[in-house]
Amino acid sequence: MQSLQQSLAASHQSEPDAPPKQVAQAMERLNQAARVIADIRLGADRILEAMFVASNPRHNDMPLQLFLREDASMRQHLQDLRSIGKKLEESGVLTESLRSRSNS
């Protein structure tokens, strides 16, 4: 996330300054994206833990229920992240060069 912010700063140094409100909104959206990414990482850890527990034959349906709950949560987090990304694109924060770098 920090490298994305540094890339944004470097790519916009030659351009005129954005209005303060636009910069504040962009920073807030980047912070939202960072929080969602942290939630995704935690969810991935929980899914892996549920899979590990499920591999033990003595456990009941609890790991399956946990897995299904985390799966739904992860899907929602990824949808939220896509939505934030679209808002950043619409506001002009994500340029074509940054988008192509993030897809690689």
Q: How would you summarize what this structure contains?
A:
The protein has about 100 residues and is mostly helical. The protein contains 4 helices and no strands.
Explain this structure to me?
With 104 residues, the chain is an all-alpha fold. It has one domain. 79% of the residues lie in helices and 0% in strands. The protein has four helices and no strands. It has helices spanning 2-12, 20-54, 62-90, 96-102. Helix 2 packs antiparallel against helix 3. The longest helix is centred in the middle third of the chain and has 35 residues, at 20-54. The radius of gyration is 18 Å and the shape is elongated. The two termini are 15 Å apart. The model has no long low-confidence stretch (mean pLDDT 79).
Q: Structural class, judged by helices and strands?
A: mainly alpha
Our Rg estimate from Cα atoms comes to 18 Å
Uncertain ranges: none
Largest sheet: none
Strand content: under 5%
Per DSSP, the total helix count is: 4
The total count of strands amounts to: 0
Cα distance spanning the termini = 15 Å
Mean pLDDT, all residues: 79
Strand-and-helix sequence, N→C? HHHH
Number of domains: 1
Globally, the shape reads elongated
Q: State the helical fraction.
A: over 70%
GO biological process, one term: regulation of transcription by RNA polymerase II
Keywords: Nucleus, Transcription, Transcription regulation
Subcellular location: Nucleus
Family: Belongs to the Mediator complex subunit 27 family.
